Structure formats: structure tokens, C-alpha cells
Amino acid sequence: MPPVPPSPIPFAAREPELVRFDRTELGAILSVYGRMVAAGEWRDYAINALRDVAEFCVFRRTAEVPIYRIEKRPRLRSRQGMYAVVGEAGQVLRRGHELSAVLRHFDRKLIRPID
């Protein structure tokens, strides 16, 4: 009987890279978040890092569904833009290639008439 070659040992499967916000992106998002908290609009947030998307979720109250999600999807970089603001019902409110342009969606929420 001829010798049987050993079966190759499979390499350990690498964990897929997670998409995350970098320091400058998170700084811009937290700046908007701080202004909205000071205005009394938002109260809590959560950050999710998944394989294909990073999310910054904003809550009016802790026990609710997020009222806004700020998403980073690198796969859409060459198409519509990798940053998006998604509303409570899942509709895309703003999408773009630059985070600062996408975050301008919240600037009009801060403008209020003075009585």
C-alpha cells in the first residue's frame, strides 16, 4: 500500500475586518451629538461595528428604537457615498461622500425661532 500524503492543515480562518469610525469621524459625529444633547433633542447613543457597516445610533430615550442612524458603508464609496443618515423608519435622509456634508442634515434641526 503506497503511503498516503498528509492532509493539509487548514490555516486558522481570519476574523473578517470590522468597519469602524476613525478618530476624526467620531469627533465630528460627537460634536453634532453634543449640540443636540444641549438642545434637549437627544439623550443616548450606541455604536455598532459590523463587517460591512459602522453605525452611530441616536436615541431620544434609552428604551426606544434609534431616531437616527449615521452609517459608514465603505462598499458604497465609489457609488452614492459611504456616509448616510438614516431615519427612524429606515429611509435614507442624506447620503454623501463626505461626513461633514452628511452631518449638515442636523444643522437645520438646531435653528429655532426665538419668542
> Which spans have pLDDT < 50 for at least 5 consecutive residues?
none
Q: How many domains in all?
A: 1
Number of DSSP strand runs:
5
**Which strand order spans the largest sheet, edge to edge or round the barrel?**
1-2-3-4-5
How much strand? 15-25%
Please give a structural write-up.
It comes from Gemmobacter aquaticus. This is DUF2794 domain-containing protein. The protein has helices at 23-38, 99-103, 107-110, and strands at residues 44-49, 54-59, 68-72, 83-87, 92-96. The protein is an alpha+beta fold and 115 residues long. It has one domain (23-110). A five-stranded antiparallel sheet has the order 1-2-3-4-5. A hairpin with a 4-residue loop joins strand 1 and strand 2. The chain is elongated. It starts with 22 loop residues before the first helix and ends in a 5-residue tail after the last helix. 18% of the residues are buried. The mean pLDDT is 83.
Descriptors:
alpha+beta, 5 strands
Task: Give the secondary structure arrangement, pairings included.
Elements: H1 23-38, E1 44-49, E2 54-59, E3 68-72, E4 83-87, E5 92-96, H2 99-103, H3 107-110
Outline:
With 115 residues, this protein is of the alpha+beta class.
